[in-house]
Amino acid sequence: MSTDPKLVPALPEAVNVLPELTFDMLAGQRNPEALGKTHTPVNVLQSMTLDVLSERGRPVLQLMIAFRPEATAAQIGRDYHRLYVLLNEYDLAQGGSGLRPIENASEGISGNDEVQLEFWPIDPSNAAQRFETMIGTIESVTSEFESIRACKIRVAA
Amino acid sequence: MVAEVPVVRVFVACEELEYDPGTRKGVTLRNLFHRIVRLPGEPFPCIREQMALYALLTNGRGKHQFGIGLFFLDHGVEHTIKEPVYKEIDLGQDPTVVHGLPVPHVKAAFDKPGQYTFSLFCDGQRIAECHVEVQ
Fold first, then answer.
1. Is B132 in contact with B15 (CB distance < 8 Å)?
2. Is residue A53 part of a domain?
3. With bands split at pLDDT 50, 70 and 90, how would you rate the model's confidence at B23?
4. Which among A55, A23, A138, A10 has a CA at the least distance from the CA of B106?
5. Is residue B78 part of a domain?
6. Alpha-carbon Rg of chain A, whole angstroms?
7. Domain span at A83
8. Vertex B51 angle, CA B48 and B55, to 5°
9. How confident is the model over B81-124, as pLDDT tens digits?
10. What is the CATH number of the domain that holds A111?
11. Is B1 part of any domain?
12. Nearest Cα residue in chain B from A13
């Protein structure tokens, strides 16, 4: 059952079942007693799932970062790495499976020289709640980074 | 009357088909399999007293002669075990209808181990194969 109101339910079309065919090598005669008996063993594996809607409902953690004008490339690179490690560890600490950076279609740079970064949760279940709890902490911690002037975080669907 | 040979989308072997022959809707395939194995101590030739085949057909129109044959592949050479016995079935004139073709009662004997092929024929033309390994 879809939770997306834009999606309408679709049903498999009914199949027109044709008259039966039969296949009897013995043509209805009794089985010769000498024939060996058989079975058809199959080892049923663990079930798999496919939920193509999971990506649609997956929340995205969006960070808008403003760097200090005097920050060096080395500082920015180091702080970006620290930030990613921090986010990933927070998600893991809350029972998630970590974050995956995603490509930003707008190249992630606003007119105010702010850089937008986006991350997907590897485990989407309860990801929105995990993200909400980490926002305040991450914003506070990043204020102490050498190169970061401001970091705004929000959760987008 | 236009007649077009259907396209076979699915042709599989299973132990049993479940459906209501009266309404002829909602066919369920029970226990799909690929291998037929002799019970311990049982000899060749052996017999599979009950199994079933099921085909899904599309893009067909008109009346056709359908039949099932059984073949054995021996060192790359195909041998006929049983020629198809044909039955006329009318697919109607709407090629968008998806047809299910049940073969609910299949009884087959196998002389030796190897790969056997159940083939679905339409008007003498082989349109689908279902391979079964017998051990």
1. no
2. no
3. confident
4. A23
5. yes
6. 28
7. 60-156
8. 140
9. 999 999 999 999 999 999 999 999 999 999 999 999 999 999 99
10. 3.30.70.1430
11. no
12. B98
Range of the domain at B90: 7-134
Record: contact B35-A40, CB cut-off 8 A: yes
Contacts of A17 in chain B (CB under 8 A): 19, 24-25, 27, 99-102
**Is residue A116 domain-resident?**
yes
Which among B19, B53, B66 has CB closest to A17?
Answer: B19
CATH code of the domain in which B71 resides: 2.60.40
Q: How many CB atoms lie within 10 A of CB B29?
A: 18
Which residues on adjacent β-strands are paired with residue B52? B14
- Omega before B45 cis (within 30°)? yes
Of B39, B82, B134, Cβ closest to residue A37: B39
Size of interface A-B (CB pairs under 8 A): 119
Residue B26 is predicted with a pLDDT of 80
Residue with tokens 């926002």, as numbered in its chain? A135
Residue among B35, B47, B59, B111 with most chain A CBs within 10 A, to mutate: B47
Domain count, chain A: 1
Cα A139 to Cα A129: distance, rounded to the nearest angstrom: 16
Strand partners, B128: B120
